[in-house]
Structure formats: structure tokens, C-alpha cells
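SAMPLE LOG
Freezer: B-3
Tube label: C17
Construct: single chain, 271 aa
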Amino acid sequence: MARLERMCALAATGLPPAEAARTALGDAPDAAPHTPAALPQPRPLPRGRSRAGSGMRLGDVRQESKGIARAALRLDAAALDELLLAAIADHGLVTAWTEVIMPTLQATGRKWESSGEKYVEVEHFLSWHVSGALRRSSPPVAADGPGTTTLLACVPGENHTLPLEVLAAALAERGLPVRMFGGALPVESVVAAVRRTGPAAVGLWAQSRTTASRPLAQHVAAMKWGVRGARRKPAVLTLGPGWAGQTVAGLPHPPGLAEALAVVESVVSGR
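STRUCTURE (predicted):
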């Protein structure tokens, strides 16, 4: 039983089952039954790439993605939290999101789309735990400074907040102040928040082309504040796939997390 439990624990991290079995057998050589003291301490798990099956079409991804996918399919909250936090700690937030978490989320979405929406609970479960891991692994938000704050919000009608949560966590990790407003912020509320905070940058997320609003982005980009002769306006980032084909001239449309961070850091450092 101890060997079997060890194999299951290894497989849950993304190790191929056959390799997990060999490792478990190697860790627990012929010992007398019911003598747990004879088992050695677990060895560090390899952190490579894996093609092991998980029930999802993940492809050639980091091993951690396989373990996260398996934990999500099992609805195993404790294992999922442990694996997500370990991935962020091991690789850093940007790499963990880009190479471990996002491929798993995309595979989960493909899973339920190709299965008659039978796995919606898995996608929601995984997204919830990713959001929690981001909050637990992020430092406190930095205090606002003149012209350094970034305002993040989903456009009206858009409720996919997770990518913005990742960006908010990454900004906090870099000591940059951020205000996160979440999903479907009404137009008048976006405008009021910008006027009240005077941000250096505004990130507007749109997952779908039906929610992306060029007039809103243009209006926010044209807003100004401050005394005459020293008026400022925000840099507006159009974020998410919904802006494809609807980008606004002069407004950056970074394709990923690392690029969005680079734009914000450039804007803040230039203020």
C-alpha cells in the first residue's frame, strides 16, 4: 500500500504512470509488510517536460501541467493548490502562467468543448484555484505613487477576469501599484475610476470581439487631468483576444503577459 500511495503521489505531479511505478519500487525495496519505517523519505520530483497522458490534449508541456490537469480532473482541491503554488514558486509567475497554467486551462476548455460540455465543473474548479493561488503567492499591493498606478478592468459585458488577475499579481510582484476592478465594469464606472485615480496605464480586457469596444478605449485614451501646461493622460492597453482586428491606432496591444508587463513598466518608468 505504501508503494501504491507513493506511485499515485508521483503520478499526480505529472510523472508518467510507468515511471512513477518504477520510482515507487525503487524507493521502497523489498520490505516486510506493514513496516512503513523501512520506506525512505520521498525524493525531489523531476521538473522536466512530459508527454504523459492526463485525459486532456496537452501536448509537449512541462511535467507540472500534467499533474495539475490530473488534480483538476479528480477535483482534488488540496493537490491542486499544492501543485499550483509549487509551479509559481519554482518558475516565477510569468513562466508558471505561460508554460504551466495557461496550457492546462486551454486544454480544459478544449476538453469540455469536445465532450458535450461534460467538464464545465473542471474548468470552473481549476480557474477558481488558479485565482486563489495567485492571491496567496502575491505580495501586498504597493502604495500608490504619483503617476505610477495601473488600472485594470474588463470591458462592459466581459466577465473573464483571470488573465487580468495574473497581470495584477505580476505587477504586485514587481512592486508596481495596481487597482483591479474585475469583470464587466460599466462605461461610466471606468471613466469615473480613471478620473479619480489618474493612472499611468489602463488595461482593458476583452475575451470576445463582441465585448471589445473601440469607442471606450479611445475615450479613455483621450482623458486628461492635472494643471494647465502639465496635463497628463493614461497609456491604454487593449488586452485579450477580443481586440484582434479591432485594435485602436496608437494604443498598444501586447499579445501576452510578459509583453503587457514590459509596456506597463516602460510607461511607469517614463513618468
